[in-house]
Amino acid sequence: xxxxxxxxxxxxxxxxxxxxxxxxxxxxxxxxxxxxxxxxxxxxxxxxxxxxxxxxxxxxxxxxxxxxxxxxxxxxxxxxxxxxxxxxxxxxxxxxxxxxxxxxxxxxxxxxxxxxxxxxxxxxxxxxxxxxxxxxxxxxxxxxxxxxxxxxxxxxxxxxxxxxxxxxxxxxxxxxxxxxxxxxxxxxxxxxxxxxxxxxxxxxxxxxxxxxxxxxxxxxxxxxxxxxxxxxxxxxxxxxxxxx
Length: 244
Prior knowledge:
The protein contains no helices and 15 strands. By secondary structure, it is mainly beta. Strand 3 and strand 4 form a beta hairpin.
């Protein structure tokens, strides 16, 4: 739905997907030796359902303000293969239900922009599998983003966000990280050359080891992720007009 008079729009979507004969990396775990044995299996029964509502509203005397909201509800039914104490892996069914809200308020005037954004996501992961610990977790992230054009071809942009996870019951997963990124640009007269300096994770709060929980309830570890860095780049804009 779009209203030209109020610059308002609202879009609703529903997606459903089913996957049969999916390849999964099943395993069984020997409690006496602590050894995990892996094998690839074909499983059926995986499906996902997602409903989303996106709302946008421009307001203000010059329509310089924008309010946007995205509400998403979903359910993922995952089938895995798990076994313990030498038993052959059997199908393990896990349901993950999520509900999230993403709200952003933006201000745009000329070449300058400023926005405030907040996201909250609630997650419930359950299974009837023996030994499975249900997950009731909440994710938050919120922050501010700004971009400003300065005289003489200079420009700066920055974003600062807080990422919080709670409810997993593990120190590695229940974390709060503050991330600050910034960029400075210079475009000489003529506009063909662009010099850019990017700084990522200026507060040095991110680790190169990242922990996450999959839809099947497994805790996975990602290493060698790129933490804090500074990058300088040069861009030349080449426009070639076709011959008439």
